[in-house]
Specification:
It is built from 14 helices and 22 strands. With 468 residues, it is of the alpha/beta class. The longest helix is centred in the N-terminal third of the chain and has 25 residues.
Length: 468
């Protein structure tokens, strides 16, 4: 029987990063993955392929809507080749997953293909695709099994017309009318992909606003922008049935007045979140406790109730974000090596990769009000930037929330071009407990989108933004 210092069940961003860091720190490491490719949901059917589709569809939209204004004339009709677009997406995925294989080899990490399940607290059975089982032993085990798409109890996913994000990345045609159930990150991103490609898109959301976990100002701005893009929204609608009739899908919902509303389309994307994946893990055999939502219970050090077993990423509490899982994988590895790492969960950014992008870190206005914290607001519109006008990306703003007495930055919220990258500046500043004035006095290159961060900081510092 092969023996290891650490065995990791699951090879998503949390799992493979944990494996690399363990190996870097001198531990004999194994990683177990049930699929034939490494990288988990994120690399195979999540973050990476969805961004590839977002970029491809963005290029198409620019070509048909904006190239002429830029003085670029293309003779003939511009057409979408969806099969080619999806093939390109798959090429990106293949290249990325092969990169993880390379990193496993480089760091001398043993990879096992099969379903990993606990035999006891130090032994893992690996059931392979051919039905054979192999057993390994490990001093420490990290659960990194991730999550899978959630659904509603009355919805039967046929994975043809009533689909999840996984199937939405492999469609053979552009829908005529895609009904998206859920106004969160996944629904909005994939909805925008197919809207750009020519589909009618209707987002049906139970809450009274989209991206409900983010600052209300971001929700309001993104709704306004996506309505300009002709995406339809049915907010405060409770879906009660989804039925397929041949090539049609009928969704029935009650609006906030309790009146029934019927939506008809040819595809329905169910994007109501994700749930922890522990199928086949056999956690009971190791004595590992789960909560009533199926998440693995961990302490502040990400240790389960069993002393040598840890859990990270989507399978535990907190935001289901790849970068959160990576930080947690690193933290566990460094703890096992005797180090004292730290994660500030308040400073893990959230991003929506629509265009314009949406990004945030720290506290929202709603959270500060609820906590009774006195704060001030500095906000600057993207349309006031020369760089935004040059690129025709004038939607959005940057908003900085700072403590009214100390001026410490408590939250940064932004909508606009490249905000997914801009948010790193806010994270860096907040990690060092910067004040709004600190940011306002840093030189920002001109012309850039990042100048909006400086201007918002100026606005929060005695309302002295320069360009509005």
């Amino acid at each position: 029987m092969d023996q290891y210092d650490v065995a990791i069940i699951g090879s998503g961003p949390g799992g493979y990063v944990a494996a690399i860091r363990c190996a870097q720190l001198g531990m004999k490491t194994a990683i177990i993955e049930k699929y034939s490719t490494l990288g988990g949901t994120c690399l195979n059917v999540g973050c990476i392929p969805s961004k590839a589709m977002l970029d491809s569809s963005h290029h198409y939209e620019d070509a048909i809507k904006h190239f002429d204004e830029h003085g670029i004339e293309i003779p003939g009709e511009i057409k979408v080749n969806l099969a080619k677009m999806i093939a390109r997406k798959q090429g990106v995925v293949d290249q990325t997953t092969k990169g993880i294989e390379f990193l496993m080899d480089k760091n001398k990490i043993t990879v096992y293909e099969g379903v990993g399940s606990f035999k006891d607290a130090t032994h893992v059975n690996i059931k392979k695709n051919d039905g054979k089982t192999e057993e390994i032993e490990a001093k420490n085990i990290i659960i990194a099994t991730g999550s899978k798409p959630s659904t509603l109890p009355f919805i039967k996913l046929d994975k043809e017309r009533i689909i999840t994000s996984t199937e939405a990345l492999e469609l053979k045609e552009v829908p005529k009318h895609m009904i998206v159930i859920g106004g969160g990150v996944i629904g909005l991103e994939l909805g925008q992909v197919y809207k750009r490609l020519g589909a009618e898109v209707t987002v049906v959301e139970f809450m009274d606003r989209i991206i409900p976990g983010m600052d209300a100002a971001l929700s309001k701005e993104l709704t306004k922008v996506m309505k300009k893009q002709k995406v339809k929204f049915a907010l405060s609608h409770k879906v009660k049935s989804v039925e397929r009739k041949g090539g049609q899908v009928i969704v029935k919902a009650d609006d906030k007045k309790g009146q029934e509303v019927v939506f008809e389309g040819d595809y329905c994307l169910v994007a109501v979140g994700r749930k922890p994946y522990t199928d086949g893990l056999n956690a009971d055999a190791a004595g590992v406790k789960l909560d009533d939502r199926g998440k693995v219970i961990v302490d502040a050090h990400l240790k389960t109730n069993v002393d040598n077993i840890y859990a990270i990423g989507d399978v535990i509490k907190g935001a289901m974000l790849a970068h959160k899982a990576e930080e947690e994988g690193t933290l566990v590895a460094e703890q096992l090596a005797g180090q004292k790492p730290h994660i500030d969960y308040n400073l893990i950014p959230g991003v929506v990769y629509t265009w314009p992008e949406v990004a945030a870190v720290g506290k929202t206005e709603e959270e500060l009000k609820e906590a009774g914290v006195e704060y001030k607001v500095g906000q600057f519109p993207m349309r006031a930037l020369g760089r935004s006008r040059a690129s025709m990306d004038t939607d959005g703003f940057v908003k900085i929330l700072a403590d009214k007495k100390t001026d410490e930055v408590l939250g940064v919220h932004m909508v606009g071009a490249r905000c997914a990258d801009l948010i790193a500046e806010a994270v860096t500043a907040m990690e060092f407990r910067a004040s709004a004035e600190d940011i306002s006095r840093m030189s920002h290159a001109h012309p850039t989108y990042a100048e909006a961060v400086k201007e918002a900081a100026l606005a929060a510092t005695d309302d002295r933004a320069l360009h509005i």
